[in-house]
Design goal:
The chain has 438 residues and is an alpha/beta fold. The protein folds into two domains: 205 residues, NAD(P)-binding Rossmann-like Domain (Rossmann fold); 135 residues, 3-Layer(aba) Sandwich (Rossmann fold), CATH 3.40.50.720. α7 crosses α10. The relative contact order is 0.09.
């Protein structure tokens, strides 16, 4: 069955409930809605729910026009009323799974959601967790909470796990065209879950258990984390050797087999790669096994913002300036190009470190007009409008996110000094002496 496209059963139209209308839940709701299912989105954010029901998207990566079309079908609505959880045939959980300060899984959102569902759970319903987590979460954490309803999994209700595979800003894929791994608590749960997902996803990949599906997502992100860490470490080495790591990667990429390109940066961002490997590390400790490889990769990636600050200091020193008292403009607050997502963005840490060292810091991001309070940061800053005069007023411009909106030739031409962490200025020929790679 793995990897094959599946057909929908047009005789029945399922009612799908999606808890969490963020970067995962709302695009998923779109796919189900346009696939013919009835969809109810549940979220505790009253402001966003109100906006969505008026056809306004809270996500830059999902245009208002698509939300308006969802509303126009009359098959979709958003609500804050959790009592409605008793109505859908399937309930999909798309809530955050962050880390605590000690880098341990914070399952608060999943636990709270399961407790809420348990209040309204009825016979015959299917509950699926989509949030990325450690192997065992569905069976060990969710199952006991859901069974406080008095219903039994595999007998009274179905239970499954299917990890989200969202890549915000990726124009080559959307939620419905990315192959989806699905693992059931039992065979019956897997069968029902596959039938539901047929309405939203083109290719389904069934696996033997929830644990296999959970582990698959952790493997995907740990693979990327480790390889990015390797290239980040090599970047630091090659800098000392006077070798351009970007040229090295370009040359290695000419090999048609046995090599996949990963790229360095100012640190890891997003909700997955900086977090998910530590879920596996935490789980491994329960089995008495250290995950040295993963932990080392985490250390390297976590230290990248400090390395970038060191390079900024070197660049300023070459211009006979110190970081303390210098005016620094950070270009890009999002964790990657062309999106408005700042979750775990290294730009936030860069701004914090710059300020701690006495720099006067501003930022510009065409997707993020102002910062908002987060668990670790509360910068209280607004994006500064770019102009030639404005750029010239800064001692250094730090490119932290390589948005396509930026005219890098113009930026370099009007800046005193540019520190580039993304190789965004690779095609800029004039003013090369102003550019310092970090």
């Amino acid at each position: 069955m793995a990897g094959k496209a599946v057909k929908k059963n047009q005789k029945t139209v399922p009612h799908v409930g999606i808890v969490g209308l963020g970067y995962v839940g709302l695009p998923l709701a779109r796919e189900f809605c346009f696939g013919g299912a009835k969809v109810t989105g549940f979220d505790v954010n009253t402001v966003n729910v109100g906006r969505i029901n008026k056809g306004r998207s809270p996500l830059k990566t999902l245009p208002n026009e698509q939300v308006k079309k969802m509303i126009a079908t009359k098959k979709f609505k958003a609500t804050c009323n959790m009592a409605g959880l008793s109505k859908p045939d399937a309930i999909l959980i798309c809530v955050p799974t962050p880390l605590t300060e000690n880098r341990e899984p914070d399952m608060t959102y999943v636990e709270q959601t399961c407790r809420t569902i348990a209040k309204y759970l009825r016979k015959g319903q299917l509950v699926i967790l989509e949030s990325t987590t450690y192997p065992g979460t569905t069976r060990e954490l969710m199952l006991p909470i859901l069974e406080t309803s008095g219903l039994k999994a595999g007998k009274d209700f179905y239970l499954a796990y299917s990890p989200e595979r969202e890549d915000p800003g990726n124009k080559h894929f959307r939620t419905g065209t990315i192959a989806k791994v699905v693992g059931g608590y039992d065979k019956a749960s897997l069968k029902v879950a596959l039938e539901i997902y047929k309405y939203a996803i083109e290719i389904l990949v069934p696996v033997d258990s929830c644990e296999v599906a959970e582990a698959a997502k952790i493997l995907e992100n740990t693979y990327r984390c480790v390889n990015i860490a390797m290239v980040n470490e090599l970047k630091q080495l090659f800098d000392k050797m006077g070798i351009d790591v970007w040229e090295v990667i370009r040359a290695a990429s000419s090999k048609p087999f046995g090599f996949q390109a990963f790229y360095p940066g100012p640190g890891l961002g997003g909700h997955c790669i900086p977090i998910d490997p530590f879920y596996l590390t935490w789980k491994a400790r329960q089995y008495g096994m250290p995950t040295k490889f993963i932990e080392l990769a985490g250390e390297i990636n976590t230290d990248m913002p400090s390395y970038v600050i060191h390079r900024v200091m070197e660049a300023l020193n070459d211009n006979k300036k110190s970081l303390k008292g210098s005016r620094v403009l950070v270009l890009g607050l999002a964790y990657k190009k062309d999106i408005d997502d700042v979750r775990e963005s290294p730009s936030l840490e860069l701004i914090k470190l710059l300020k701690e060292r006495g720099a006067k810091v501003d930022y510009n991001d065409p997707y993020i007009p102002q910062t908002h309070k987060q668990r670790k940061y509360n910068l209280r800053m607004k994006s500064k409008k770019l102009s030639a005069t404005m750029l010239k007023s800064y001692d250094v411009v730090l490119i932290a996110t390589d948005h396509s909106d930026y005219d890098y030739k113009w930026i370099v031409a009007n800046s005193q000094l540019v520190v580039d962490t993304r190789n965004a200025t690779a095609n800029v020929k004039r003013g090369r002496k102003k550019i310092f790679k970090a």
